[in-house]
Design a protein that fits this description.
Layout: H1 2-5, H2 20-27, H3 51-69
Length: 70
């Protein structure tokens, strides 16, 4: 699903932790996690997301909602 929606953005893998593991392990709910930004700026002093990244992510979230929830 992510590949069908995210067509003009490069997908990369990152290590880290989210609650998605709990949803999958305890409830069997398949999950993936993604978001806007630059990895090197995540969880550091003065963390920020470039506006263009946030705008692109908003469009992706909208499309995911249309395809999955509506």
């Amino acid at each position: 699903l992510a590949r069908r929606v995210i067509t003009k953005t490069r997908l990369i893998g990152e290590s880290g932790y989210t609650e998605a593991e709990i949803f999958y392990k305890d409830a069997g709910i398949p999950c993936f996690s993604f978001g806007p930004g630059i990895s090197e700026l995540a969880h550091v002093t003065n963390e920020y997301i470039p506006i263009k990244n946030l705008q692109r992510a908003t469009k992706i979230y909208e499309e995911l909602i249309r395809r999955v929830c509506l």
